[in-house]
Structure formats: C-alpha cells, structure tokens
Amino acid sequence: MSTIGVRESLLGRWDHLAVFQVDAISRKKLWFSPCYGWHGMLCYQADGAMYAVFSAVDRPAFGTEALDGGTQDEWARAYGSYISYSGKYTVDESEMVITHHVEFSTFPNWTGRDLVRHCRFSRDGEHLELLTPSVHIGGMDITVQLDFRRSG
After folding, report:
1. Secondary element (H or E) of residue 6
2. The dihedral of CA 59, 126, 7, 130: what is its sign?
3. In DSSP terms, which residues pair with 15 in a beta bridge?
4. CA quadruple 142, 143, 147, 148: dihedral positive or negative?
5. What is the C-alpha separation between 20 and 82, in angstroms, rounded?
C-alpha cells in the first residue's frame, strides 16, 4: 500500500475472489472456497456509506413475476442464495481495522450490530483481505478471511 491511508485506499468497489477459514493461532488455512458458484462485491464511499452483496451465480427464478409471489420453497432458496448488508463504516488507521456499522441486512441478526474486520492490502493496492475476529468452533479458534480485487 502507498502512503495514503486505509480509508482512502478502501474507496470504490471491490469484487469478491475467495473465502478461507484460517486457524487463528497457527494462521494455517483450513478450508478454501474460490467462490465458484458465488460472486459479490463490497463498496466503500467517501461519505462513510458502505454495502456488501453476495449472491449465488444462477439463482433460480420464481415461477411468477409478482414481487409478492413465489412459493415458500422459492423464498427459502432465494434467501439461502443471497446475503447483503449496508450502513456506515469507520476506520482505525493505526490498527488497520474497519468497522461496518450495519443498518440493513438480509440476515436480521446483523442489523444494528458492528462487524469488525482487520484489513490488509497488496503492495499495489489492488487486492484487499478482510479478516474477521476469531470465533471458537469445533475446539478451534477460527478466523474467516475474505479476499477481494479492486474492480476496474
């Protein structure tokens, strides 16, 4: 990353490349998905607004064009193949931490919460890694790493 700050480096659209589960202690990558079948983007605006959108590629259409139509199965498949959230964001420049202050989310448990992400940039500033805080799963402390490429 150049001498510009984290906040300025974040500005714009980032396309999702991959997701990893990482052992929080050893930093060993335990699970990897190159996002086959999924795509998404993360956008940061200068006014402090942000949004994240992730969708399965080839989501099946509903059997109707009515916005209030569709079967319960169609709605369940649609919900299970898409997640998004939006709100404001703040940056701790010295710690390289981004906090997403979630105002709206398809996953209701995130609405009104802060999602903390440690960030790293490639030297050329074209790739971004976001790391979640660790959570204890299956006897291990796990971190999720999301990889993005600047949209061009």
Report:
1. helix 6-10
2. positive
3. 41, 149
4. positive
5. 19
Give CA–CA dist 148/130, Å, rounded: 8
**Length of the chain, in residues:** 152
Domains annotated on the chain, with CATH: 6-150 (2.40.128)
CA 58 vs. chain centroid, Å, equals: 20
Show the tokens assigned to 63.
Answer: 């059997």
- For the stretch 86-96, pLDDT in tens is 999 999 999 99
- From residue 20, alpha-carbon distances to 29, 54, 70, 88, 130 in Å are 7, 15, 34, 25, 10
Q: Which two tokens stand for residue 67?
A: 């916005």
pLDDT, tens only, 59-75: 999 999 999 999 999 99
